[in-house]
Amino acid sequence: MQLKSFNPAKEELNQSYPAHQLDEVDEILDKSVLAFKEWRETRFEERAELLRNTADILRRKKDELARIITIEMGKHIRESVAEIEKCAWVCEYYADNGAGFLVKESVQTNASESYVSYRPLGPVLAIMPWNFPFWQVFRFAAPALMGGNTGLLKHASNVPGCSIAIEEVIEEAGFPDNVFRSLLIPSNKVDMVIKDKRVKAVTLTGSTPAGKSVAALAGKYLKKTVLELGGSDPYIILEDADLELAVNACVTGRLINAGQSCIGAKRFVAVDAVYDRFEEMFLEKMKQVRYGDPFEETVDIGPLARNNLREELQVQVDMSVEKGARLLIGGEIPEVPGYYYPPTVLSDVKPGMPAYHDELFGPVASLIRAKDEADAIRIANDTSFGLGGAVFTQNIERGKEIAEFEIEAGSCFVNDFVRSDPRLPFGGIKGSGYGRELSHFGMKEFQNIKTVYIK
């Protein structure tokens, strides 16, 4: 069997890669276990040095690696370069801080001595998506490897080139053989890896249905999971918001990666007092956005990653319009080569429409009118998702209250668009998953948090 890489901007085959056979997968799992037994005993200083080497290689080869991203899933080359640079950052972050995150913690008890220690679990299977094909992997790999685990990557089937390139970078950095391996297997072979007793934990970034399936199977075999799933992030625009700032942040948040981001801004909930003006300014900003060849500097967004994703998005837009949403711009698949979709704005979005309830994975914005602040908060939380959210107001104290206490999400930003940062935990609640990546929280997810008690 072959895994095929297609260029979504040209609708052309990039390259075919032979999938691993079952005996090859078995051998990789064996080697991962053996590598773990030695890797877990290495000093933090050695692990940190290798992560810094990785960061250096990523920066040195950023143009080459960014090109692989762009030709495999269509991200604009500027964003692909930025993604590689962010991967270097997360490697350096854990090189600098990882050892401190796992320092033994003394606890006063009736014992003569008692403390909490952290020990790695073993081979961790990462099931990763195509939309941020380097970043999603490194935000798992950097803390997992720094913590003494070994990594097994099952990447999305449409980005095999990225999967291989990541393994090669980590190998070039000097990590011991088999500490990190890519599994080139189709999705229907993942279950057998999850079930395998050699795999000790699973992390997945992907859709909510995929997360439920993986969680159920891993739960059957009592394996720890971390799930970062879909999102339909609400951005609340209050009456006193700086509208220019809000519109710039909202459009930026919606169009990152051509709108193909779990944490991307999706639903824009403006209170009635400013809704019409916000809509006018938002529409004007979206009209300035240009789509096209992701290697062209004058272009803002590239194509969607696959044609089936574009077709699904079109169905969601059409159904929303049929149910009463106003189409202000875009909304039609252009008759040009490539899986392009134009910047699209739907206004007067209401319950019962896909644009209100579903995750729209593309450059489509849903504008929703709220009566007042309380109604805006209600609408923001009227979703099965809970990944991120934002609120725009010049009353910073009120913004903080809404962000901390009112919005049901794993992250909430005030006067800015939501994004991940190695220094802060990242993850969701409700249908957006559980567990946390990044920060010290993400590093401890795949550690045995062990109590040691001495009489």
Walkthrough of the structure:
The chain is an alpha/beta fold. It folds into two domains: 2-229 and 430-454, Aldehyde Dehydrogenase, Chain A, domain 1 (3-Layer(aba) Sandwich); 233-414, Aldehyde Dehydrogenase, Chain A, domain 2, CATH 3.40.309.10. It contains 15 helices and 18 strands. The protein has a seven-stranded mixed sheet with strand order 12-13-14-11-10-15-16, with helices on both faces. A six-stranded mixed sheet has the order 7-6-5-8-9-17, with helices on both faces. Strands 3-4-18 form a three-stranded antiparallel sheet, with no helix packed on it. Helix 5 links the parallel strand 5 (123-127) and strand 6. It is globular and about 65 Å long. The model has no long low-confidence stretch (mean pLDDT 98).
What would you give as the CATH superfamily of the largest domain?
Aldehyde Dehydrogenase, Chain A, domain 1
Q: Uncertain regions: pLDDT < 50 for 5+ in a row? A: none
Beta strand count:
18
The first-to-last residue Cα distance is: 58 Å
Rg of Cα set: 23 Å
Strand order, biggest sheet? 12-13-14-11-10-15-16
Instruction: Name the average pLDDT.
Output: 98
Percent of residues in helices comes to 40-55%
> Strand content of the residues, in percent?
15-25%
CATH class category label of the largest domain = Alpha Beta
CATH architecture of the largest domain, by name, is 3-Layer(aba) Sandwich
Number of domains: 2
CATH topology of the largest domain: Aldehyde Dehydrogenase, Chain A, domain 1
Which descriptor suits the 3D outline? globular
Give a quick account of the main beta sheet: strands, pairing sense, barrel closure: 7 strands, mixed
| Structural class label | alpha/beta
Number of helices: 15
